[in-house]
Design a protein that fits this description.
Helix content is about 30%, strand content about 15%. The chain has nine helices and nine strands.
Length: about 260
């Protein structure tokens, strides 16, 4: 960790800065996408008690949709970046962002929204407007995907709220462990708050984190050992042949 990071002092009481996210009934259009996503069917009412919160669920459960809307509410570019990165034009907030109310203590404006799928566009923008000194002295495009992610995390994450959509997409298991150290160094002292969507059992094991599942008709807090990501990975590693037996089974004569 850099000496500059070590000198950071938490704002007020420290993270979590964002305390609640609530849906606005008068703007909640239940029959329209994305409001009709099952996990949003009862509206949204989230309270954050810990500096690190993970959002888990199957593809299509609404994780990325929710985090993008929250990022918009924070003033971040919905394609990824912070308040200073305006490399795409968006006339107004999405319908979901307009239907959410965020409560802060204290309000923070520093932070970042990471979308793994659009990180290339962000890296291109940074290369055109900034020196690379703040990113480890090397162009993000001249590093591997995983290296560029970690360069961003190490050199630009200090104090504020960080919204990360599937950061493990570019990280090997070893680099995921490195990322956990960054989470620890920023969240434990109260410098930063993280909202992270992920499928990674490694990241989800972060001590003291809150896990929120979007699998179902509401967003619910779950225990690490109860999530499907953990159970499936555990069972597969314990007995891969049992999975292969079913995955690679020849179709029966009736199905052929």
């Amino acid at each position: 960790m850099t000496s500059r990071r070590g000198a950071v002092r938490p704002l007020g009481r420290g993270a979590p800065f964002l305390r609640t996210i609530e849906s606005l009934d008068d703007k909640w259009e239940a029959s329209r996408h994305p409001f009709n996503v099952p996990a949003f069917s009862r509206g949204i009412g989230l309270k954050f008690r810990t500096p690190v919160t993970f959002f888990v669920g199957e593809n299509g459960a609404g994780k990325s949709t929710l985090l993008e809307a929250v990022a918009e509410c924070c003033g971040f570019n919905p394609e990824g970046g912070n308040r200073d990165h305006h490399y795409a034009a968006f006339a107004e907030r999405s319908a979901l962002a307009q239907a959410l109310r965020l409560s802060w203590m204290p309000k923070v404006t520093e932070g970042f929204f990471l979308r793994a799928e659009s990180f290339y566009n962000f890296a291109t923008y940074i290369s055109s407007v900034s020196t690379m000194r703040a990113y480890g002295g090397k162009s993000l495009h001249e590093q591997s995907h995983g290296e560029s992610f970690l360069a961003l995390f190490k050199h630009r994450f200090e104090q504020g709220i960080y919204i990360l959509d599937e950061p493990e997409a570019a990280l090997s298991p070893q680099r995921q462990l490195s990322f956990l150290r960054i989470l620890h160094d920023l969240s434990v002292p109260g410098h930063a708050q993280f909202l992270i969507s992920t499928h990674s059992p490694i990241l989800l094991a972060f001590p003291g984190a809150t896990l929120l599942s979007l699998d179902g008709d509401a967003i619910r807090e779950v225990a690490y050992t109860d999530i499907d990501h953990y159970k499936l990975t555990r069972d597969f590693l314990n007995a891969p042949d049992r999975f292969f037996k079913h995955l690679f089974a020849e179709p029966s004569g009736e199905d052929a």
